[in-house]
Amino acid sequence: MRILFVHPNYRSGGAEIAGTWPPAWVAYLTGHLRQAGFEDIHFIDAMTNDISDAELARQMEEYRPDVVGVTAITPSIYRAEDVLKVASQVVPDAVRVLGGVHATFMYKQVLSEAPWVDVIVRGEGEEICNELMRAIDKGRWPAERHSIKGLAFRDGERIVATAAASTVKDLSKIKPDWNILDWDKYRYIPLGTRVAIPNLARGCPFTCSFCSQWKFWRDYRVRDPKDVVDEIEDLVDNHGVGFFILADEEPTINKKKFVAFCGELIARDLPRRVKWGINTRVTDIYRDRDDLKFYRKAGLVHVSLGTEAAAQMKLDRFNKETKVEENKEAIRLLREADILVEAQFIVGLDNETSETLEETYQMAWDWQPDLANWSMYTPWPFTPLFQDLKDQVEIHDFSKYNFVTPIMKPAAMERGELLDGVMNNYRRFYMKKALFHYPWRGTGFRRRYLLGCLWAFMKAGFQRTFYDLGKAGYWGPQTKKTVDFHFDESRTIAEAQLEDWEAAGDRAARAAERREAVRAQTKASKARAAEVKACGGGDLQMEDV
């Protein structure tokens, strides 16, 4: 049986400015399938190679696959649907499969607007995909599709979701096939080297209200650090990778495993040949202040911190469980350890104003991270914060849900003014860094890295790809009132399907609610008892006479 995976051709002007990122999902799925005996697997990276639908159709006809599989995050969902529409036209007998976080929770809407999608894999894909491919290979598809957990599909006029499959419990079975990728294509611009995105842990124990990852992965699991370093050694030795970013939401949460990971890298002398970066929480940096130089020795050179907001009110709304004053201290600690630090800010909620945007700029400059990034709040329809704000969400064109397009319209600003305010923050921050910091502060690797980051920004700026500015028609403050984001206003939204989906964070929240209810009940009982004693000096009742 021949399987063809396709990465959809979607670009946003966000993360792509730093380089060309390898689609790790296909390596993890392919590795699991190969262990199950499937060998005839092929891959088309339509995004990296900028492949048109016409060229995609030609290549599909050449492969003549039995299965076409594609994944999508929310902003790429329409392009993923387009890939499978092409497949329905040129290889109509192939089973058309869609996976990813958006389709997992929005399967009813996806199957309604794209009826040519045969089946959706809901949740963590490796084990579900194996079951699905075995059924197709043995001729049991579609007759036995109702018996496979973790799927959604159309059955006549009905849309059916089978019971949710378990998450992958034995992570030692996760052995990605990195050979499926053409490594010449994937480069990290700041260092001019090949880049990879391996995975140490899955899930997150925290429940930030704007994030969907903790809900998608459902529970938090960490792989054996030696297995992960085996992967990295393979990436360095056999694929020429010189920089990697851990795909984890928060790889430092399990400190014991993270320290073991760093120790294994050092033991194999890998930091001499490969550098790496992570995203993590301010609180973990605070906790690990005495270990940061050890992390740097292991090759960690770039930490992106989820500072998220300059105001404590926003941090509380995001359920970040951090304090504003901790952000500045974490940045200082990282810089002292010679680790480059990037501060992430989320802007563009309903209460954003020119004053709050200025506040984030002033805070960023006061904190002095090496890099700063202002991301537009994106109201994923399957997150807790969306439930609070959904009546204010006017744009349902998911192709713009990409962290660079203002989806929400603040009460006090137009979207063009919001974009202009964010660009003003970028201009001021990086102009001052370019003139007074990057060329003159630090030597060797730090200076080279920062100048490489500046080059990536400048390149995207000249090409008008940064924040999709060319497409939106933004050329500076003089155009803020004429910006056109080209929203498809015909798009509507359906409710996310969450009723059969339980994450560890949901269970923890309910347990906390129960504990609080018991405490409140106990407190009320004590108060009532005190009132009885106060009235008569005791709790004995007068006998009837």
Q: Which structural class best describes the helix and strand composition?
A: alpha/beta
Strand content: 5-15%
- Helical content band: 40-55%
What's the pLDDT, averaged over the residues? 89
Terminal CA distance reads 92 Å
**What coarse outline follows from CA principal-axis ratios?**
globular
Strands across the major sheet, in which order?
A: 2-1-3-4-5-6-7
Strand count: 16
Unreliable runs: 310-315, 532-545
Major sheet attributes: 7 strands, mixed
Number of discrete helical segments:
19
Calculate Rg over CA atoms.
Answer: 25 Å
Instruction: Work out the oligomeric state of the chains in this entry.
Output: single chain
Notes on the structure:
The protein is an alpha/beta fold. The chain has 19 helices and 16 strands. The strands form three sheets. A seven-stranded mixed β-sheet has the order 2-1-3-4-5-6-7, with helices on both faces. A hairpin with a 4-residue loop joins strand 8 (187-188) and strand 9. Helix 1 crosses helix 6 (125-137), helix 2 (53-63) packs across helix 3 and helix 8 (225-239) runs parallel beside helix 9. The termini are far apart. Mean pLDDT is 89; it is low at 310-315 and 532-545.
